[in-house]
Amino acid sequence: MEATITNHQKNVSTFIHLSTFSKWFFPFGNFIAPLVLWSAQKSKSAYIDKNSREAINFQLSMLLYLIIIAVITIPFVVYQAIKYDGSTHIYWSDHLHANGDASGLSGLLIALIVSGTLAIGLTLFEIVTVISAAIKASKGESYSYPLTIRFITDNAVDEIHQTTTEEPAQTAGQASDNSTQTTASANTKNDSDKTNDDIVL
User: Is pLDDT at 129 greater than 50 in this prediction?
Assistant: First the structure.
C-alpha cells in the first residue's frame, strides 16, 4: 500500500463504501456501484483496491447471511402455516381474543418475529459498519469489516497484477535477447570481413 495516501484516494475509497447504499435505490446497487468503481480505480491505487475488496466482500457476506436466514425460516413458516388449519378464530373486543387451538398461529408468529428481528438487526449492523468504514477511509486509515468472508482475496488480485506485470517484462527480455543476438551476428560478420581483407592484402 502507498506510503502517502492522497485526498483523491481517500475520497474515492469513501465513496466506494457509501456506494453500497445504492441498493436502496436500484436492485443490486450494492454490488454494481462498488464493482464499477473498483474496476476503474484498482490499478491506480493499492489503497483504493483494498477498500473496494473490503466493501464487496462485506456485501457478499451480508447477502449470504440473509439467504441462510431465509433458508432456515421459510420451511418452518410453511410448516406452521400448514399446521394452522384455520380452526383458530381471532377477534378484537376491548382486547385481543382467540378461540380454538392457537399453537399453530403462535408458532407462525414466533418464526416471523425471530426472522424479522434477525434481518432488521443484520441491516442495522450493515449500516453502522459501512458508515464506520467510510469514516476510516476518509481519514486514510485501514478498515476491515467484521463477520466478512474473503470471497475476493488479496492473493487472487496480486496474481492478476503479477501476470500483467510479467508479460511486458518477458517481452522486454525477448527484445533484449534478440538485440544481443543481432549484435553478436554483426560482430561475427565484421570479424569475417576483416579476415578476408587481411588475406587479400
Answer: yes
